[in-house]
Structure formats: structure tokens, C-alpha cells
Amino acid sequence: MCGIVGYLGENSALPALIDGLRRLEYRGYDSSGIALRLGSDIQSVKAVGKIKALEEKIFGKDVKSPQSPFAKWGNYNKSPQLQYPRGCLGIAHTRWATHGEPSEANAHPHSDCLGKIWIAHNGIIENYKELKEKLEEKGHKFKSETDTEVIAHLIEDFYPHTNTNDNVSVGAGKSGGDLAGSLRKALKLLEGAYGIVLIHEDYPDKIMAAKMGSPLAIGLGDTETIIASDVSAIITRAKQVIYLDDGEVAEISKNDLRIFNIDNVKIEKKIEEIDWDMGEAEKKGFPHFMLKEIFEQPESIMNSIRGRVMEREGKAKLGGFDSVSKKLRDINRIIITACGTAMHAGLVGEYMLEEYAGIPTEVEYASEFRYRRPIIDKNTALLAISQSGETADTLAAIREAKEKNALTLGIVNVVGSSIAREIDAGAYNHIGPEISVASTKAFTSQVAIMALITVYLGRQRRMSLITGERIIKELLLIPEKIKDILGQNNEIKKIAEKYVNAENFFYLGRKYNYPTALEGALKLKEISYIHAEGIPSGEMKHGSIAMIDENFPSVFICPRDSVYEKNISNMEEIKSRGGRVIAVATEGDERIKEMADDIIYIPKTLEMLTPILATAPLQLFAYHVSALKGLDVDKPRNLAKSVTVE
Ligand code: M6R
């Protein structure tokens, strides 16, 4: 949650900061702000709402004749080519509120009493109340309700300023104190998580960054350095990146970059190449990122599979698992942990691993995992699934499992993310950035990789060559089959038009498609704000069916599979109580026409792979309902793309 950007370079910082904020907006968008060094001052501007509100505040609604009090930040005479101010140093933040309502006062960056230190923070300082009380006793004056502001005041407290305010008993003395030292002392007092960027009025050429639990990457451009919560805010300007690790502090000036730990021990860091293509982070003519990402699935699934199958041997080749392949042979239990959509992919994986690899598997919400007393022995592996690789709950679950000496595995999309670096072994999705808050292409890729892991582990055990071959053969056909489904986009839109005013939905499915039902319901509710519940079809008669009437439609995922007949019986139960039914069925299924009000057909595939095909039309359905309602599809209210707080 929250996106932070910092800029130091030879160009104007403002366009870089705004561009970075736009790219990070998916991480949180209830307020935003920028602190920019202009001459010898640092000035800030903040706004409630999306980045657009901040831009309007800086540039005015009409950039050609801005009325904004911040017009001095730029010279607009040469519009439309905006001339930006000369400030080459600044920090910016887009917020997802945790402490304090979304307001200008609570928007970052925050400053100390003297307005010299400016800080943008992602994460939660758990002991901020206690620290705030102590600082207030010493005379510090707080301007916000946030946990972040304590960091600025703490640093101020350790930093010897020429103090112009008698009420503030910060360390008196001459200015020009030790900023890095003061930051380190402050960090030692913090409990919780932080990704921080900070600038100080006394240092026109310096930006500091620190990380503990919240992601931070430093992009190294030719003439500029950009620090950001993730590389999507960096790729336009730099191709090389350093990922900070927990407990590391970076001191960046124009000609120097020093990374050290909290005890000031220098750390040598690896410079990595960013291999994401810029075009992948753009909308490419689609009205929303979500639609673009849904339509990318034939290619993204293929990218997840390519080079990872040995068709003739009926085997999967997962390079990331090589280092632990011997240990994997001895694994006799797998715990899959994840959140949200990734957890639904894990549930599909549970059915696959038990049916085809014969490994007892359980799936646990990451947010619950570490609060149980999980029973883990040396033959248990924990498999974490995460698109962002930054989900705090998933990361915490991995750490808990590591404490208990479990082998930790992962399926992660974002290269170099915290989870990717924490696990013992894993497979990347290779699907490029997923920008829309609603996860789509990540889910289908995660399920495809679960199928590969099933073949990999199954073939280490009792899976036959024929079975391995069959799964791989069918998996390779999935991208083309998804294309067929996406070709029905207009028909699916028409169905969405029919149901757009419904206030409730059930999503029902069995076995492999129970997780599909959960995923379809999650997609609809998170972007359309319509109440939707995913239920195993057989469970509906134990209570939920009481809700059914003509205004409460049900989406049935009922391909021709081993539980088809059972699903049909459940559908009849709904129909006989006046409920309307949208069915996702297998091509050629005529019988379903007698019962369902609307049908979306998907091509035939292996039962274990049906969730990939059946989810695609549900993504489109949710998308169209949200778009028809005129909602912000890519940035639904109250949500953020990566949830880096517990
Ligand atoms: O980045 P992760 O895959 O770890 O994220 C997990 C969930 O927060 C995520 O899938 C969330 O449920 C999506 N918004 C669903 O579309």
C-alpha cells in the first residue's frame, strides 16, 4: 500500500515525480503529495483524491492558463510544452490510509517542527503512539494523525539544528548535523514496517532511503536516480536497479551512492537489470488496464509455460526448483499460502497436487497461517503464491514457516520482490506488470504454473509418462482456447447489461471450479461493489438457497467434468425456486440450454485446467458490469494493488 518516489538528478524532479506517482497510483489513491526542493527551500503540495487532483492543484485545471497557487513551480507560457521548475530533488507519495482519514493534513510527505526534514513513508510504525507521546513531551508539535510524522520528528530530535523555535527542545546546536547518523538512530527506535525516502533542507544534493518490510528499489539512470516502491515507476528512466533489503539505508547524492546497515556497516549491493518492457506498463489502446490484461492472457499464459515443458518426457522443467529438487522428492505434505486471488489459484493447486501428484495438500489464508500453530516438519513444504511478491501477510507466513525449518517455495510475478528473495526456490510468472488492482492474468498464470508444479512433483513420484504428456499437451492448447473465449467479449457484455442492476449474486461450482466460483465472486464485488458470494454448489442447500428469488441470480460454473451431473441437480434446485442462472458450460452442451437463462461456452479441456478457461468469461463479466456502472475499474474504492500492511 502507498507508493513512494524520490528523485535526484540533472533534470527537473517534478515531471519525474508525477509520472512515478501515476505509475504507482494502483498502490493507493486516497491522497497524494510532493515535496520539492526549490532554491534553498523545500516546498510541498498535497491533495485529497487521486493523482489527478494533485496535478490540478499544481498546474491548475487548464494547464494553458493555470490559476494554481503553485503556478510558480513552473513557467506555463510555452504551453503545451510545460516548462518545469529547476528543482532537481524531490519526494512524492500516493497514500492508502492506515492511520488518520484521507485528508491533506494526513497526506505525505510529512515534515518535522522546523519544516526542514521531509519524509514519504510506506508501511506502519506500530509503536508510533508511544514515540509521539515522548516527542510531544519534549515540545514537538505534530500536524497530522499519521504514524509517519513521528519519523520526521525523531530524526529532528537527533539532529542538531539551529533552533528558531524556543518551544521545540530538539538537540540545540549548529546546523549541519549528521543526517545519516540521525536517521539511523531514529530507525533503531521504530517497530513495524517502513519504506522511506527523505530529504533535508540543509542538503541540496542528497536523498536518503531506508527499508524494513516495505519494498524499495533504486533506479540508476544516466543522469538521475529514482527511488520507488516498485520498478514500474522507474522503467521509463532507468534500466538498472538496486533492490534494498530489510535493515538497509541508502545515502544518495549526485556523485555517490552508499548503502549501509543500521549500524553504519557498508554493504555492497548487486546492480540488476530491469527486463520489463515499457510498453507492457501502458494501456495500448484499451480503455482500462483490466481489459488489456484480460486480453493479454493467451500470451501471458504461454509466457508462463514456454521453455518449461518436456513434451516427449511428459515432464516439467522448472529451473527455479533445480537447487531443491532432491529435497522435493522427500516432501510428503504441502501447505499453500496466499491471499485473495492468489489464494484461489492455490485452491485449484490443492486439487491438482492431491489428484495427480498424490501429495497431501492444504491451503491456508496467509493472514491466518501464522496465528495458528502450524504443524510443520522437515518434510513439509510451504508454497506461497503472490503476484506482487510484497503482500505482508504472505511474507509473514513464509517467515513463520522458515522459523520452523520448512522448505519455502513460491510462485511470484514481480522479479526481485521481497517474497521472491525470501523463498528457497520458486517459479516466476513471466507475465509482465499487472497494473489493474483486480488481478486477472496473474490468476490464470498461477494456475498454469500450479499445473507445471503438479507435473514436476508428480513425475518425481508415481505419475505416469502418459499422464504427464496429456497434462502438458492440454496445457499447451490453453492459450488458443482462451483466445476463443475472449472472442465472445461482445456477447458477455450483453449478458452484463442484463444483470447490471442485480444487487446480489451467487457463484457456484464444484471440485476444481469451486475456487473458480470464489474468484468470479471476488472479481465482481471488488470492481462493481455488488455483493457476490462464491459457494460450493453442494453447500448451497445448507442455508444460502434461502436467499434465492427472481432478483438474486446465480452464476454456475458447470463444465462437462466429473461433477457435471451433481452441478446440474443443484442448478435445478435454484431454477425451481425462481432463481435466474448464468451458466459457464462446455461447448456442445445442449442440455444446459433447458435450464440456464444465459450461457457462456468454453472449449473442452482437461478437468484440472477448466478453472483457467472458466475464469476468463467471469473476468469479462465483472469488467463489463463495472464499466457499465461507470466505476473506476482499475482503481476500485478502498483497495490497493499490493497490500503491504497486515
Ligand atoms: O500480490 P498478491 O498476489 O500477493 O496479492 C494478493 C491479493 O491481495 C490480490 O490477489 C487481491 O485479492 C486482488 N485485488 C484480487 O483481484
Characterise this structure.
The protein has 646 residues and is α/β, with parallel strands linked by helices. The chain folds into three domains: 3-282, Glutamine Phosphoribosylpyrophosphate, subunit 1, domain 1, CATH 3.60.20; 286-486, Glucose-6-phosphate isomerase like protein, domain 1 (Rossmann fold, 3-Layer(aba) Sandwich); 489-646, 3-Layer(aba) Sandwich (Rossmann fold), CATH 3.40.50. It is built from 18 helices and 26 strands. The protein has an eight-stranded antiparallel sheet, with helices on one face. A six-stranded antiparallel sheet has the order 5-6-7-8-12-13, covered by helices on one side. The longest helix has 22 residues, at 465-486. The radius of gyration is 26 Å and the shape is globular. The termini are close together. Bound molecules: 5-amino-5-deoxy-1-O-phosphono-D-mannitol. 5-amino-5-deoxy-1-O-phosphono-D-mannitol (M6R) binds at residues 339-342, 386-388, 391, 394, 437-439, 522, 526, 642-643.
SSE diagram, text form:
Blueprint (H helix, E strand, L loop, with lengths): L2 E7 L3 H12 L6 E8 L2 E8 L2 H9 L29 E7 L14 E2 L5 E6 L5 H10 L11 H10 L20 H11 L4 E7 L5 E7 L4 E4 L3 E5 L11 E4 L4 E6 L2 E6 L10 E2 L15 H7 L1 H9 L3 E2 L4 E2 L8 H6 L2 E6 L1 H18 L3 E5 H4 L10 E7 L5 H12 L3 E6 L5 H5 L2 E4 L12 H20 L4 H22 L2 H11 L4 E6 L3 H16 L2 E6 L17 E4 L6 H12 L5 E6 L11 E5 L7 H19 L18
Parallel strand pairs: 17-18, 17-19, 19-20, 20-21, 22-23, 22-24, 24-25, 25-26
Antiparallel strand pairs: 1-4, 1-10, 2-3, 2-4, 5-6, 6-7, 7-8, 8-12, 9-10, 9-11, 11-14, 12-13, 15-16
Helix pairs in contact: 3-4, 4-5, 7-13, 7-14, 9-13, 9-16, 13-14, 13-18, 14-18, 15-18, 16-18
The structure holds 5-amino-5-deoxy-1-O-phosphono-D-mannitol.
The site of 5-amino-5-deoxy-1-O-phosphono-D-mannitol (M6R) has 16 residues, from helix 9 and helix 16.
